[in-house]
Amino acid sequence: MSEIHHQTVEMGSVVLAIDSNYDEITVAAFHYRQIHLYPYLREKGFNIERCQGKLARRHYVASAARKQNVKYITGVGHGSEDTFTGDQGTPIFRIGNYDREESDGKIIHFLSCKTALELGFDLVQHGCRAFFGYDVDFTVILETPDIFFECDSEIDRAFADANNAEEVYNYTKQIYENRIKEYSDKWIEALQSDNEREAQESEYIWKWLEVNLNHLCCPSINERWGDSQAKLE
Questions:
Q1: Hey, which of 6, 178, 202, 230 would disulfide with 187, CB 3.0 to 4.6 Å?
Q2: Domain ranges within the chain, ordered by starting residue
């Protein structure tokens, strides 16, 4: 990776962290981000405002998102074409039901299903500088969840490293491709050794990683999701 990936954003900007943790998949994502992502963001000089667990609800998120020093929003929750949800599936961002202040001038990343289809585009129309999300269901194999969360969290890490949206996509794509190759190689080795169980497990991992990557939406894919030169400054 190039030198730019290791730069630090020198500022007091705030990251708004929205983390549902009420079912198996959101709990797994929440724990991964607590251990592997948020300490990294703090090391890079960001303050983190947390709307997690019972605070991952519309009232608390809307109040926090309106603050001018919140420059980046990263969220884990279930989603649909027009809605990102929080605790117990309650809507947080829904088309027609949030204020421009919550998105204007911010970069937003949702680890959720389908929000890129309509909501991501709508957020950009309401001032979001760059949106990262998925236009299909984001798939996680719960026996090996960290592999999937590692790939997606590269979006947050790369923005924290002072990269623009295009560079963030390139770094994230590379992480995905590295993991896809790792598990496709394991699949081939397992087939050659007649280890049917390991072959099946490895195949599931690399194929679902490939699906997630192919459906990651962001400005590099289409300008409907924002400005490819957007970065945290």
A1: 202
A2: 13-225
- What's this model's pTM, rounded to 2 decimal places? 0.93
3 state SS of 51: strand
- Alpha carbon distance 7, 122 (integer Å): 31
Pick the CATH number of 13-225 from 3.40.50.1100, 3.40.190.10, 3.40.50.1460, 3.40.250.10: 3.40.50.1460
What lies within 8 Å, CB to CB, of 95 at 6+ separation is: 82, 83, 118, 119, 122
pLDDT tens digit at each of 233 positions of the chain: 233 344 444 456 899 999 999 999 999 999 999 999 999 999 999 999 999 999 999 999 999 999 999 999 999 999 999 999 999 999 999 999 999 999 999 999 999 999 999 999 999 999 999 999 999 999 999 999 999 999 999 999 999 999 999 999 999 999 999 999 999 999 999 999 999 999 999 999 999 999 999 999 999 999 999 999 999 98
E-only strand ranges, the chain: 14-19, 47-52, 70-76, 79-80, 83-85, 91-94, 107-111, 130-134, 216-217
